[in-house]
Design a protein that fits this description.
The complex is a heterodimer of chains A (about 325) and B (about 425). In chain A, about 35% of the residues lie in helices and about 25% in strands. Chain A is of the alpha/beta class. In chain B, helix 6 (about 155-170) packs antiparallel against helix 7, helix 12 (about 275-305) packs across helix 13 (about 315-340) and helix 13 runs parallel beside helix 17 (about 405-425). Classes of the chains: A alpha/beta (about 325), B alpha/beta (about 425).
Chain lengths: ~325, ~425
């Protein structure tokens, strides 16, 4: 019996990242609960979810630092912890994983050597990273003396020293001020211009909206929605808009009234959806008849936050 | 006060340092310096009887009866075969090898003229005391015991010799005096024979005993190890203190692994081409290099400032230095891999290193310790390292003689590193 011919698929045709049925448990806690995901070439996929949703565990599984209980992760067809995957992946961890007493240049040189870079290749990579992170003039500065934003940029650069094709960014803007955050966005957009594939985790909706082609909303270790921002909103709200009604006083009767009308109460604000703006009058009228004082009411187009709330019943930053 | 007490209660390391360490140290010092009598170490003494006279045999029997001495006339049997008695040459070699700190050679003709008064007689055979100067206690003990035994174990000989000298230098005894002296000597001989055969004897006449006090047995003392090398005794302290600080240095250097765990760089490094085995090996190399550099610096300082003869011992130093550095480096890696945080490492390493150093000879020489503690000390890196450095700098032994110490230190290093590697698996994957 003749064996089937072996057909090798060119790397360029393989998906940068493919995850199937990934499960990871820590004792009784299921951090990742059967996630399947694909990252296309040149795509930036956002993982949006609250703290503790399982984003970081998913990222650590991809980078081979967590051994999954079930499922597979492949990078250009290679297993997650294989040498090929390590070369192709660049990981920017959430914490500042840097050597504080070493200078920016020494940190980059060290991580470059850990990735197998030597001599001219290492020197060129270090210069590229310093330039990309706008740290050339601080190259000789020990990390401990840098500002929070600079440390974040260097943290990102250290993950890219070997110029990987697939980049995993785990909340790279945590703890930085808006100005420094904008600078990081510019760095990421520059990378995107070079055609790398990227997974970007965040619990900031505006970051996901600005940077990502597609967004996976993740909660309790599961992907609860996946698509472009418009697809997610459309799937959750169709053509409906959101009405935000803020009450002057909240009590059990208000909560019961909101629930009865199909709304969601968060703090002092109730969220309803309406097909047409004219329906706001009906909300105002019903509240008045029920004896509930409204402080203000507004109409807005749903966003990712609305989608998350709609799908989970709680806010993204809980 | 309440917050401080709560913090202390929850900090196990600080609790251990505050309460366990002082008690442990007190116990060790108490056992060594204030312990029970039966744990006091005996002085190992090699005896060579070249005279084979009644006097020499009586002297040796007296030495054997002393509870503070462990007298050996021949090496321990090998494979059940009894070894020949020590000769002057083999006893000297045994002291040089560190088998004992002191050897006594009782020469031919000693029994004919065992004591000496007045001006030294160059023709009189004298007992030779061969000693290892690194042991400052044992030779003093043996020298004192020798004089005591001469008085108590062979009083008749002492009295007879004393009366001869009296007769010679005081112008002679009258016949009546000679008769009384002979009667007294006969009584002494009877007592001596009775004591030798283990029979109870009547208490000696205190006046008679006192009359023998201060009569010296001529002894020639010779350093066979450490002769004219007072400066090199410093090398012992350099090694003893050095090893203790090497252990602290290695534990601090090994702690960089915990720093990497805490900062997240370990995770990041392990996501590159670097494996945990490679990382630990790199850290071990760093610890070894650091520890060896520290030893080099310490001995260079001892050479330049305190005139320790370092240059002529460089080969032995390098062998012992690298072996010691490897063992302490692996020890540092093990301590780090046992702990979960830097905060845990500090108290644990202080506790373990100070205990090891106290029984391993880094704080005071092991020959001062009871036998049980000396044996326990062999479980420490300190003891083997100090023994090796002593061989190099004190005994001038060739590098080939260092194999037991080198083998133990390298073996300990390999085992400790293997355990550290096994424990570090918990950081590899989660």
């Amino acid at each position: 019996m003749a064996s089937a011919p072996v057909v090798s698929i060119p790397t360029s045709l393989l998906l940068p990242l493919q995850i199937e049925g990934l499960v990871k448990r820590f004792g009784d806690l299921t951090a990742v609960d059967g996630i399947s995901l694909e990252l296309k070439s040149g795509e930036c996929l956002g993982l949006l979810g609250p703290n503790g949703a399982g984003k970081t565990t998913l990222i650590r599984s991809i980078v081979g630092r967590v051994t999954p209980d079930a499922g597979t992760v492949s990078i250009f067809g290679d297993r997650a912890d294989s040498a090929g995957a390590r070369a192709a992946l660049g990981w920017v961890p959430q914490e500042l994983a840097l050597y504080g007493k070493l200078t920016c240049r020494e940190n980059l040189e060290s991580f470059g050597q850990f990735h197998g870079l030597r001599r001219a290749a290492l020197k060129a990579a270090v210069e590229w990273c310093l330039n990309w992170a706008a740290l050339t003039d601080r190259a000789q500065e020990p990390v401990k003396n840098l500002s929070g934003g600079m440390k974040r940029r260097l943290n990102m650069a250290a993950g890219l020293i070997h110029r990987p094709q697939v980049i995993l960014m785990d909340e790279p803007t945590v703890g930085v001020d808006p100005q420094a955050r904008n600078r990081i966005f510019e760095m990421i957009e520059k990378l995107r211009g070079e055609g790398v594939s990227m997974i970007y985790t965040t619990h900031y909706m505006e970051e996901a909206e600005r940077l990502c082609d597609r967004i996976a909303i993740i909660d309790h270790g599961r992907i609860i929605a996946l698509g472009t921002k418009d697809e997610l909103v459309r799937n959750a709200f169709a053509s409906r808009s959101e009405v935000l009604a803020r009450f002057a006083r909240i009590d059990d009767s208000v909560a019961a009234w909101v629930k009865e009308r199909g709304g969601i109460l968060e703090n002092e604000t109730a969220r309803f959806t309406v097909e047409h703006a004219t329906e706001i009058a009906g909300v105002l009228d019903a509240a008045a008849k029920a004896g509930h004082d409204l402080a203000d009411i507004s109409l807005r187009k749903p966003n990712l936050e609305s989608v998350f709330l709609q799908l989970t019943g709680r806010e993204l930053r809980d | 006060m309440r917050t401080a007490l709560i913090a202390l209660r929850r900090d196990r390391g600080a609790l251990a340092l505050s309460f366990i360490l002082p008690i442990a140290f007190f116990s060790i010092f108490a056992v060594i310096f204030g312990g029970r009598r039966d744990t006091t170490p005996k002085v190992s003494l090699l005896v060579v009887d070249e005279d084979h006279s009644a006097v020499s045999q009586s002297l040796i029997r007296g030495l054997e009866r002393e509870g503070s001495l462990a007298v050996k006339k021949r090496p321990a049997a090998k494979k059940g075969v009894e070894q020949p008695e020590y000769t002057a040459a083999t006893a000297e070699a045994a002291v040089k090898d560190g088998d004992a700190s002191v050897a006594l050679i009782v020469p031919h003709g000693f029994g004919e003229n065992p004591i000496s008064f007045g001006a030294p007689n160059p023709n009189q055979p004298t007992i030779q005391l061969l000693k290892d100067s690194s042991d400052m206690v044992a030779p003093q003990v043996v020298a004192g015991m020798l004089q005591k035994v001469a008085m108590t174990a062979m009083p008749a000989v002492m009295a007879e010799q004393g009366s001869k000298y009296m007769d010679k230098y005081a112008g002679g005894f009258t016949p009546e005096q000679k008769k009384k002296i002979d009667a007294g000597l006969e009584e002494l001989r009877k007592r001596q024979d009775a004591e030798s055969s283990g029979q109870p004897t009547a208490p000696a006449d205190p006046n008679h005993a006192n009359s023998n006090q201060g009569m010296p047995i001529p002894v020639t003392t010779r350093d066979v190890v450490g002769d004219n090398k007072n400066k090199d005794m410093l090398s012992f302290y350099a090694a003893a203190v050095g090893v203790m600080f090497l252990l602290f240095t290695a534990s601090g250097a090994g702690g960089s692994l915990l720093d990497e765990v805490e900062s997240g760089t370990l995770d990041r490094v392990l996501s590159t081409h670097v494996s945990m085995g490679t990382l630990l090996t790199g850290k071990l190399c760093y610890c070894v290099l650091l520890a060896f550099s520290q030893l080099v610096l310490m001995f260079l300082w001892a050479w330049l400032v305190f005139k320790v003869d370092f240059p002529s011992h460089i080969p032995g130093f390098v062998v012992m230095g690298l072996s010691t550095a490897f063992a302490v480096g692996a020890f540092g890696m093990l301590l780090a891999s046992i702990c979960r945080t830097r905060a845990q490492l500090g108290p644990l390493s202080t506790l373990v290193i100070l205990l090891m150093s106290s029984i391993g000879g880094s704080m005071f020489p092991r020959f001062l310790m009871p036998e049980a503690i000396q044996k326990a000390g062999l479980l420490t890196i300190n003891a083997w390292a100090i023994d090796g450095f002593t061989k190099v700098f004190w005994r001038d032994e060739p590098v080939s003689h260092l194999w037991p110490q080198v083998l133990v230190l390298l073996g300990v290093g390999v085992v400790l590193f293997a355990i550290a590697r096994r424990l570090a698996r918990r950081w590899e994957y989660s």
